[in-house]
Amino acid sequence: MVTASGIFTALASVVWLYLVFRQSKTVPPEVLSGILKVIEWKSLLLLFSMIIPLCAFFAAILLSVSVFAKSFKEAQSIITPLNFMVLVPILIGIFPGIKLNAVTALIPILNISLATKEIIAGTISPWVMAEVYLVLFSLAVMGLIFCTRWFNREEIIFRGV
Question: Per residue, what are the HEC states of 125-147?
């Protein structure tokens, strides 16, 4: 359910962004045509396809971490540092000169940031994109296995009883 809500939120955001730019009357026509060239359906589908395993990975990690919390407030204080750890690779990916290659495609979150830049620019290599997908799906599977093992342990589930 957590993964599904993340995917739905991402899909709604991408569709809404596309529709806003498509229907915008205040953006100058030359800027709008440039934006609409960047935001084409092929690019949107590639971006969305990366979001699915990423949502599964984060859902598994957040569920695994939050199972230790005794309240919503405690869960938030446990999960908040993870938000900052995610922002660092995203910001590194924004820096000029950092390119998506076989090495940077192995670094979680950074690979998505760099792949997004490459997809929008239209310069993504199919082999490097395949490596990004492999890393994303591997992380998602490992996260889900880890989460499943935590929830299958009775001492974790019934620790407060």
Answer: CHHHHHHHHHHHHHHHHHHHHHH
Q: Are 26 and 32 in contact (CB under 8 A)?
A: no
SS3 category, 103: coil
90, exposed or middle or buried, with CB in 10 Å at 0-12, 13-18, 19+?
Answer: middle
**What does the domain layout of the chain look like in residue ranges?**
2-157
Its pTM surpasses 0.90: no
Task: For the chain, 161 residues long, give each residue's pLDDT as a single digit of tens.
Answer: 888 888 898 888 877 877 877 777 777 777 777 777 766 778 778 888 888 888 888 888 888 777 777 778 888 888 888 888 888 988 888 888 888 899 999 998 899 889 988 888 888 888 999 999 999 888 888 888 887 887 787 776 666 65
